[in-house]
Amino acid sequence: MKPAVSPVMRLVPVLRNLVRTHRLERADPARLDAERRRLLVGLVRHAQANVPRYRELIAPETAAAFRGPEDLPSLPTLDRAEFHDRAPGDMLAAGFTTANTKAGTTSGSSGIPITIRNSERDLGRLRASYLYDMLAAGLRPWDRMAYFRVNPFLRHPLERFGLLRTFHIDTSGTLDEQVEAFLAARPTFLVGFPHVIASVVEELERRGVRYRGARRVLFGGERLTPTARALVLGHLGARCHEVYASVEVFTIARTCHRGSLHLRSADVVVELEQEDGSVVPADGTREAEGEILVTRLHSEAMPLIRYRLGDRVTVGPAGCGCGRHTPVVLRVQGRSQDRFRGHDGREFYADFLTYRVQDFPEVSRMQLVQERPAQVTVRVVLTPGAAASVTERIGAAVREAVPGFDVSVERVRSIAPEANGKIRIVKVEPAAG
């Protein structure tokens, strides 16, 4: 039986993994490829030998012949629904149980909540990944970090020395409670969903309070309109970075100092599934779009191989001049299941419509909702003083993009987030499917 997860955060594994991450961040392509292959081959063989479900899915001879990313299409994908329906014992490696691993549960915004279990070694890598995200975004040891999230987090021992102090802004509370917690914390570094941070900043502006203590903002989890982003950064006088991450696979991509969202190729292998079922590797050789399949290279207790995260993304070549040799995520287009349907029953990804809306500088928040085929309701939160006619112009822009659709534009005071605190910019109601 494997040892239980420590009830306190262990810094040594975190620091060890932090050094490894930094070492590989700018590794040359040959070295990075060799490391990925080594980890991927070990992961596949570990899963086949030790995980009950993978023993059913992967034949011993397939695992023995596996050589690297090019062989991934020979393996089955792991569907979110199947993962949810399986007993934990089916997905846990030998020696691991619910008693000696720590659970991480997704919000269930897709309708299917997933619980991932991590070993102490997995957690060391997870914490190092998140810490590196913040260091790459400009975190300093003496910063005061405000985390905008529902659940609190495990404290770390460095706080007793006044280093990396963390403050929980409970996003399940009222806006007034969040603002008061924010002002009491006096943070210099902010981490959270963009629209939540934007809401706090807008309330500060409404109150006439100018907060200039923040140096950096680390956005993650959703897209913010250019107008709302400019408001946040302009009010705070801060610089921003972004991450693309999930509970299941940790950080998938993070921005460099040039603003490019680089895949973390030392930790994940990404494939893009096309409409016809074929798969394109996100290897930086060309631009490709599709449903993302993620293999988490460091997953000891509960391996995730070719996991359907549920997002549709576009990945481009590794052409950034920052010194990294990894592919760049050009767009995260939202949930793959949120596809609009036309009169003829054909479905399409509606993310392109959002750019027709956010191009209007008066739009602070937006959401496109389909309740029946060939129909879309555009909900917008407009900036103060926006002319009433802007909703007509937004409607015209959307109708031009989807001729024949019944398009309505609603000016609203706010847009309700999902249970996890995110706003789904494109949303399909069940009746529309």
From TrEMBL:
The GO terms this record gives for MF are: ligase activity
Q: Which Gene3D superfamilies match?
A: N-terminal domain of ligase-like
What the entry lists under InterPro entries is as follows: ANL_N_sf, CapK_Type1_Caps_Biosynth
Top-rank taxon of the source lineage equals: Bacteria
Keyword list, A-Z: Ligase
Entry keyword Iron-sulfur? no
* Name by which UniProt lists this protein: Phenylacetate-coenzyme A ligase PaaK, adenylate-forming domain family
What is the organism lineage in this UniProt record?
Answer: Bacteria, Bacillati, Actinomycetota, Actinomycetes, Kitasatosporales
